[in-house]
Amino acid sequence: MSHHLHAANSWGSMLITLAIFAAGLVYVAGWLKLRREFPNVIGVQRLAEFLAGLLVVWVAVSSPLATLDHQFLTAHMVQHLLLMTIAAPLMLLGAPVVAVLQGLPSHAVHSVSRLLGNRKLQKLGRIIAHPAFCWFAGTGTVIAWHIPALFQVGMRSENWHAVEHASFLAAGLLFWWPVIVPWPSVARWCEWSAPLYLFLATLPCDALSAFLTFCNRVVYPHYQSAPRAYVLSPLDDQAMAGALMWTWVTFAYLGAAAFITIRALSPRRRHSQVEVV
């Protein structure tokens, strides 16, 4: 890696770290304000979940792990998986919309409120929040960035590399939105649809990971000539990345589907539903 590129990476990592820190401060300010006025609205657990999500984002894109993604496809895959399957759901579990709005300056909140009141934006928001759109956004982002031509663009340019990371985090937030339904949003489907939604999402990821694992050639030319600090051939690195994706996504998605199913079948949950009816 050239000195110029290394300097660009250092500045980029510093800016990302500052942005993550600023997001955390805004959330904490909003959380404290809500706790003073409405003590039972957002508990400590939500605060911990959101801040843990931000920490995972930092680990994925600004920690020493980020320095390995140009050397190893496996490290690059870990970044994507951290952003989509851990950071994104943790941040949504923290009920970020309400806390962040409370933490912003009053004039910023007023501007956001005016935007949210726009009918065209409300219509666009309903489309974006629809489970079908969220599913295609999540799976489509994964597939698109693993197309060799687009992958190479992200590896050659630090700006495009940052766009790649941002798109994985955004796609993760969209993908998990219908599953977690962060407060105060309202579910737009039957709870039993969530396990099917998650199961179907594993299929394209399984196909991609199987291709990377069993392909007998290096798919991404960048890693063919990348300098390596450890003895691991590009083909073995690719197979390891594919196997990691296969295992990780299966546990993340099907684990969440199993949790939702068990929760829906729990006697206490069914009893409360009967009482409501």
**Order of helix and strand elements from N to C terminus:** HHHHHHHHHHHHH
Count of beta strands: 0
- Tell me the overall shape: globular
**Number of H- or I-type helical stretches:** 13
- Biggest sheet: strands, sense, closure? none
Q: Estimate the strand proportion.
A: under 5%
Rg of Cα set: 20 Å
Mean pLDDT: 87
* N/C terminus separation: 64 Å
Q: How many structural units, i.e. domains? A: 1
Uncertain stretches = 1-8, 270-277
**Helix percentage:** over 70%
Summarize the model shown:
The protein has 277 residues and is mostly helical. Helices cover 79% and strands 0% of the residues. It has one domain (3-276).
Question: How would you characterize the overall build of this protein?
Answer:
There is one protein chain. With 277 residues, the chain is an all-alpha fold. It has one domain. Helices cover 79% and strands 0% of the residues. The protein has helices spanning 3-37, 44-61, 73-93, 96-103, 106-116, 119-128, 131-145, 148-156, 158-180, 193-214, 221-225, 234-265, 267-276. Helix 3 crosses helix 9 (158-180). The longest helix has 35 residues, at 3-37. The radius of gyration is 20 Å and the shape is globular. The protein starts with a helix and ends with a helix. Residues 1-8 and 270-277 have low confidence and may be disordered.
